[in-house]
């Protein structure tokens, strides 16, 4: 998939990025070599064999994310990310550490709005036992009171650490609810303490039955393995699992367009310096405007020389930090601009300079060297991520979830290289300057 030719392309991209006077021709990237099949029980298998590396990445991408949390039970998908590392009928708790880390590999997992993914990398001779273990925790997880109570406490502690203890945690945790109007994306994936406490064991078991089933998961295997062995082992361990009756419920909510500006004032017990967040509705991740929005965000906020950093942090010194980020999910997205004040000034005073820099990029000149530098930086970062089997598997799984097609991973790089200055201006005008926004100030709560 990447191999020696792609590594040479990576070096070429890095060299061009270091020479901003050059106009880089589009890099001809080799397609990701892969094979797909579906088992009779609905499980989707995506495989790319790369002989010689000695390791293999094994990832399970479940089509369940925080958008699928039951009403009044936010945080369930995240909770199950933790539950899947507990005991099964034939595995003790934390056995995945023994099966991966103790043989020189690794394991991890993450929960996002659209998916929960379990990521492993092991020496190739451990591939079959890892496939058995993934089948085991899919079909025989112990969803019992002890495991539920233990992992709920862990998730609650994560909430306290990331949201309550972080001075700006409450602000960033509130952005989905402020930015989305109706879509379940408006519920933060980490959940909240009250809804986690209200959950029952029956709730958890129902969630597991609904979403943890073979027809709701994609197995992605990339690295050094024999395809015939993989097929045989997948059939032996995962193919034997029955397909449950009925279909998996899907979120069908369509996000309505925002029809007016909205202002919100947020407070928290400990806010060292005032902050401001601006939110606009964004397109889904597979939208044609997504690459140009990523380039626009990098021009505005990626690195010390980015436009927001130069204007607000270095020249005006009105902010200690500023950013702009496209949060694009499978169904819909948000565009978020923010600034944290450099001193005790009104949070609302940050809005005009932040908008001015966005407008300057959308309406003013964009030097070719500046655009080329950012485009090549993004391309180089994407290629660097794909230098490992785990990175290539991640690109395939992400493309499947966000675009519904693993081959979109190749198209994404080609579309990124094709972004023009006109594209950057157009997407900022369409999705930001001509759109309604939410302006949220964040300040210290009054003391009683």
| CATH homologous superfamily designation of the largest domain | Metalloenzyme, LuxS/M16 peptidase-like
Instruction: Provide the helix percentage.
Output: 40-55%
Q: Write down the secondary-structure element order.
A: HEEEHHEEHHHHHEHEEHHEEHHHHHE
Count of strand segments? 11
State the CATH topology of the largest domain. Cytochrome Bc1 Complex, Chain A, domain 1
* Largest sheet properties: 6 strands, mixed
What structural class is derived from the secondary structure elements?
alpha+beta
Describe what this molecule looks like in 3D.
The protein is α+β, with helices and mostly antiparallel strands. It folds into two domains: 33-237, Cytochrome Bc1 Complex, Chain A, domain 1; 262-444, Metalloenzyme, LuxS/M16 peptidase-like (Cytochrome Bc1 Complex, Chain A, domain 1), CATH 3.30.830. Helix content is 43%, strand content 18%. It has 16 helices and eleven strands. It has helices spanning 3-17, 76-83, 95-100, 127-139, 145-164, 169-179, 193-198, 201-211, 227-237, 290-301, 307-315, 351-363, 368-385, 389-403, 408-417, 421-433, and strands at residues 35-38, 44-49, 55-62, 106-111, 116-123, 217-223, 262-268, 275-282, 319-328, 333-341, 437-444. A six-stranded mixed sheet has the order 1-2-6-3-5-4, sandwiched between helices. Strands 7-11-8-10-9 form a five-stranded mixed sheet, with helices on both faces. Helix 1 (3-17) packs antiparallel against helix 13. It is globular. The chain starts with a helix and ends with a strand. The relative contact order is 0.17.
């Amino acid at each position: 998939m990447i191999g020696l030719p792609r590594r040479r392309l990576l070096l070429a991209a890095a060299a061009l990025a270091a020479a901003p006077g050059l106009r880089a021709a589009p890099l001809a990237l080799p397609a990701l070599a892969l094979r797909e099949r579906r088992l009779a029980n609905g499980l989707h298998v995506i495989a790319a064999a790369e002989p010689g590396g000695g390791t293999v990445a094994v990832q399970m991408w479940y089509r369940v994310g925080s958008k699928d949390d039951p009403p009044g039970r936010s945080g369930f998908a995240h909770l199950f990310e933790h539950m899947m590392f507990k005991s099964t009928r034939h595995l003790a708790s934390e056995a995945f550490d023994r099966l991966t880390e103790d043989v020189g590999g690794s394991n991890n997992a993450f929960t996002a709005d659209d998916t929960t993914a379990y990521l492993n990398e092991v020496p190739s001779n451990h591939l079959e036992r890892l496939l058995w273990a993934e089948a085991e925790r899919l079909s025989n997880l112990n969803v019992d009171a002890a495991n539920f109570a233990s992992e709920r406490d862990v998730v609650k502690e994560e909430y306290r650490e990331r949201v309550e203890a972080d001075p700006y945690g409450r602000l960033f945790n509130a952005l989905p609810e402020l930015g989305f109007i109706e879509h379940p994306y408006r519920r933060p994936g980490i959940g909240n303490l009250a809804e986690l406490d209200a959950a029952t064991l029956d709730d958890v078991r129902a969630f597991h039955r609904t979403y943890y089933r073979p027809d709701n998961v994609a197995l992605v295997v990339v690295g050094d393995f024999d395809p015939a062995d993989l097929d045989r082992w997948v059939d032996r361990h995962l193919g034997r699992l029955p397909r449950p009756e009925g279909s998996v419920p899907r979120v069908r909510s369509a996000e309505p367009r925002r029809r007016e500006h909205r202002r919100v004032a947020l407070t928290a017990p400990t806010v060292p310096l005032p902050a401001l967040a601006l939110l606009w509705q964004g397109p889904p991740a597979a939208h044609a405007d997504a690459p140009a929005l990523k380039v626009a965000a990098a021009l505005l906020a990626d690195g010390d020389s980015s436009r927001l950093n130069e204007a607000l942090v270095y020249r005006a010194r009105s902010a200690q930090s500023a950013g702009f980020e496209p949060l694009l999910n499978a169904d819909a997205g948000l565009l978020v601009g923010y600034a944290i004040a450099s001193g005790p000034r009104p949070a609302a005073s940050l809005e005009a300079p932040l908008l001015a820099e966005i407008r300057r990029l959308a309406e003013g000149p964009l030097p070719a060297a500046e655009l080329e530098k950012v485009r090549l930086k993004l391309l180089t970062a994407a290629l660097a991520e794909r230098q490992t089997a785990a990175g290539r598997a991640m690109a395939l799984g992400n493309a499947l979830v966000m675009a519904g097609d693993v081959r979109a991973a190749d198209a994404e790089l080609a579309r990124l290289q094709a972004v023009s200055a006109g594209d950057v201006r157009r997407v900022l005008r369409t999705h930001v300057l001509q759109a309604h926004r939410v302006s949220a100030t964040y300040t210290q709560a009054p003391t009683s």
